[in-house]
Each structure stands twice: as structure tokens, then as C-alpha cells.
Design brief:
two-stranded antiparallel ribbon, 4-stranded parallel β-sheet, 7 helices, globular, about 170 residues, single chain, alpha/beta
């Protein structure tokens, strides 16, 4: 939660180009930086080898909700784009806990929102999906590199095509 805030000049320009209205405009929110994954194809993972400290730095769900509130108050935006593929941490229990924490933070907001976020297949469980639906998540992007198990192994992925299909079926 020590990140400097994003520059909002582009958001202001988008609203101006939209006739001064925030209708239909998504505000970007950083939910963390870096990557805890280890895919052989990933430039973020390779860049992370150059870093000192943790490879992934996560913002608290309270800080994320506070930023959403600030964006709503200042720009009248209620559609949000979470620009981090690592919104949920690795591991089913940790992912469920963060999803529940985020749901509680969103439930305290004085407005309803619409949230677009990225999820990793290895984080998608029934419990996580239920929590995120109640946290105003309306759109999910899931990066699937392949449904071919040999390709997944070659890419350094720890998932099988069967696990990927099971995760996508829950959405």
C-alpha cells in the first residue's frame, strides 16, 4: 500500500472526450505489482529476477476499496478495471480468504460498482467465484495459454487442460 497513486490524466481526458460524463468509462486500479508465477514465457517473471525483495507486492483489499471510493467521489466512476493478473494469491485457501476480504470491503462501499479483473485458472474455485460475484465483479478475463498438456508443461505451467476446463466451467 505504499505505491504512489496512478496518474489520472488519461481518465480525465477520457471523461472529457465522453462529453464530461463518466458513463461507460472504466477507471484502472492497481491491486498489486509483480508476479508470483513462474511461467517460462512470462516477461514479468523474467524481469522479477532482477528485483530485490518479494516478486509480488499485494495491496490490501481495504486500500483497493478506498481507491474505488476516491475515484467515485472525484470522477463519478463506478466501473473499475483491476490491472493485475495476480489479484488473488496462490493457493486455494489464500485465494478464498482474499476474495472474502474483498467482498466485505466492497459491501461497505456507499455505492454499487462493476469490476473487471483477471484471474488465474489455479485460483478459480466455487467459493472464490461466489465471493467475487457478491463483490460486484461482473467480468473476468482468464489467460489460458493452451489446452494441450504437453504445451502447458513446456511453458512451465502447473495446470492441466482438465483443471483449466474445470475452472472455466465455474465461471
Amino acid at each position: 500500500d505504499i505505491y504512489p497513486p496512478m496518474d489520472r490524466a488519461v481518465l480525465e481526458e477520457m471523461i472529457a472526450c465522453n462529453g464530461g460524463s463518466s458513463a461507460g468509462i472504466q477507471a484502472s486500479v492497481m491491486t498489486g505489482r509483480g508476479c508470483y508465477g513462474g511461467g517460462k514465457f512470462c516477461s514479468v517473471f523474467e524481469a522479477g529476477k532482477q528485483m530485490t525483495g518479494p516478486r509480488y507486492r499485494e495491496r490490501t483489499t481495504t486500500a483497493i476499496a478506498n481507491e474505488m471510493t476516491w475515484l467515485k467521489e472525484k470522477y463519478h466512476v463506478s466501473d473499475f478495471y483491476f490491472c493485475s493478473a495476480q489479484f488473488l494469491p496462490s493457493g486455494a485457501a489464500a485465494a478464498k480468504q482474499r476474495a472474502a476480504s474483498f467482498r466485505r470491503a466492497v459491501e461497505r462501499l456507499p455505492f454499487r460498482s462493476s469490476i473487471f479483473l483477471y484471474l488465474r485458472c489455479d485460483n478459480i474455485t466455487y467459493e472464490v467465484v461466489r465471493e467475487l460475484v457478491h463483490a460486484d465483479v461482473t467480468t473476468v478475463f482468464v489467460g489460458v495459454e493452451s489446452f494441450d498438456d504437453a504445451t502447458l508443461v513446456a511453458l512451465g505451467k502447473s495446470l492441466t487442460s482438465e483443471k483449466i476446463i474445470a475452472a472455466l466451467t465455474l465461471l
